[in-house]
């Protein structure tokens, strides 16, 4: 039995040998390129109606400085979104509060 040349599993004598996967390529962009890409993403979000708040920017800066992890930032944003949803529901239907 002949395997295809790019097969990940090849016969190796008495058994099969699994070839290792290559690492993901490094991000070789310069800091300026990364900043330009980030600015483009934020610009697209603003076009869709996103308005950055000082509180959100503060959380992003804390992540950039390494004070909190990305997971902690996501948790903060989820809690804020939940609180905003609760407040909007109270404003729309005050009789249910």
> What's the overall average pLDDT, rounded?
80
Helix- and strand-based class? mainly alpha
Strand residue percentage: 5-15%
Q: What's the helix count?
A: 3
Number of E-type strands: 2
Shape descriptor: extended
Helix content: 40-55%
Unreliable runs: none
In short:
This protein is mainly alpha-helical and 97 residues long. The N and C termini lie far apart (71 Å). It has helices spanning 31-47, 54-65, 70-92; strands at 9-12, 15-18.
Description of the structure:
The protein is mainly alpha-helical. The chain has a domain at 53-97. 54% of the residues lie in helices and 8% in strands. It is built from three helices and two strands, in the order E-E-H-H-H. The chain has helices at residues 31-47, 54-65, 70-92; strands at 9-12, 15-18. A two-stranded antiparallel ribbon has the order 1-2. Strand 1 and strand 2 form a beta hairpin. The longest helix is centred in the C-terminal third of the chain and has 23 residues, at 70-92. It starts with 8 loop residues before the first strand and ends in a 5-residue tail after the last helix. The relative contact order is 0.05.
Write the layout of secondary structure elements.
Elements: E1 9-12, E2 15-18, H1 31-47, H2 54-65, H3 70-92
Antiparallel strand pairs: 1-2
Helix pairs in contact: 2-3
């Amino acid at each position: 039995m002949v395997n295809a040349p790019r097969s990940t599993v090849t016969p190796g004598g008495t058994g099969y040998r699994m070839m290792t996967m290559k690492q993901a390529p490094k991000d070789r962009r310069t800091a300026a390129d990364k900043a330009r890409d980030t600015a483009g993403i934020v610009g697209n979000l603003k076009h869709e109606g996103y308005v950055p708040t000082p509180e959100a920017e503060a959380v992003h800066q804390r992540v950039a400085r390494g004070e909190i992890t990305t997971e902690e930032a996501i948790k903060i944003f989820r809690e804020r979104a939940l609180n905003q949803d609760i407040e909007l529901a109270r404003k729309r239907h005050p009789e249910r509060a």
